[in-house]
Amino acid sequence: MLAKEKGVLSGSDLYFMTPSDNARDMLFYLTACGYYYTNADYLIQRETYQSYLIIYLCDGQMSVSTGGKRQLIKAGQICFLDCYDPHEYRSMGHAEFIWAHVAGSNISAFHKRVIQNYGSYVFSASQHEEIRKQLFAFTYAERNNQEVSEWKHSDQIYHLLILMLDQAGKTDAALSDRSVSAATRQAMEYIRIHYDQQLSLEQIANEVSMSQFHFSRVFKRECGYSPHEFLIITRMDRAMYLLKTTDLPVKAISAQIGYQNETTFTNAFTGRIGLSPSKFRKFPI
After folding, report:
1. Matching CATH topology for 13-165 and 182-282?
2. Which CATH superfamily is domain 182-282 in?
3. What is 13-165's CATH number?
4. How high does pLDDT run on average in the chain?
């Protein structure tokens, strides 16, 4: 479908997709996508639009504004824009870009994490070429009348979101592969062995010969959660096992997994699992 918007040049593609109720309830989904060639007349200003916009700029420059902040997009960069808030984007002269409006599921959480990792809604990603290919695949499928199920689109969008987060903000060359580093594995093993003790961030960081700040940053970047949360998860896993496989009192279990009193453990368990320890013990799995 050829686009006919102001500032959009000949050869540009534009496609719309209406999501089913099932997609709105359960999936990530596309609402529109395209491949644009534009000139300086291209300008979009909106108070709101019910989706998130992903742009990959192939050539030229664009300007994007939201939340009182203006950013330039350069060739090879990505923009991940929350269109629920007032926003504006335009071409700075001639530009070529691929774009998709996406929505659904927990996409707002992905957007928040991207902003946290890059410090901006415009960024350069290590997986930028794969991001470009995936965005182009949406337009290519529509251009060639390929039937793509909403389930497949949801999977592709999820993959696209993961690509944007992959090693975001990476600065350490030692972390150039996608697996966790030796230091993080060592720290995880240390926590698994000593989870029943009163572990501090300082203790764990010292174990892997890192400063607390650097260790915490590396661990969270590689695992997606903090060392403290990994300690809590490890304790909860053990608590659930003991509740289901032993007759130990809750007070004894709380002591075994490193909690100083039963009330603190019960509150932590209930908040994390959704059931109190006593109810979980009786609950069929």
Report:
1. no
2. Homeodomain-like (1.10.10.60)
3. 2.60.120.280
4. 89
Which residue type, as a one-letter code, is found at position 93? G
What count of other Cβ atoms lies within 10 Å of the Cβ of residue 264? Answer: 11
Q: Give the per-residue pLDDT at 174.
A: 39
Tell me the DSSP string of the chain.
Answer: -B---TTBPTT-EEEE-PPPHHHHHH-EEEEEEEEEEE-TT-EEEES--SSEEEEEEEEEEEEEEETTEEEEEETT-EEEEETTS-EEEEEEEEEEEEEEEEEETTHHHHHHHHHHHHSSSEE--TTHHHHHHHHHHHHHHHHTT----HHHHHHHHHHHHHHHHTTTT---GGG-SSSPPHHHHHHHHHHHHHTTS---HHHHHHHTT--HHHHHHHHHHHHSS-HHHHHHHHHHHHHHHHHHH----HHHHHHHTT-SSHHHHHHHHHHHHSS-HHHHHHS--
pLDDT tens digits for 52-89? Answer: 999 999 999 999 999 889 999 999 999 999 999 999 99
pLDDT tens-digit readout, 4-21: 678 999 889 889 888 888
Q: Report the b/e string of 119-149 with b at 16+ CB within 10 A.
A: eebbbebbbbeebbebbbbbbebbeeeeeee
Domain boundaries, the chain: 13-165, 182-282
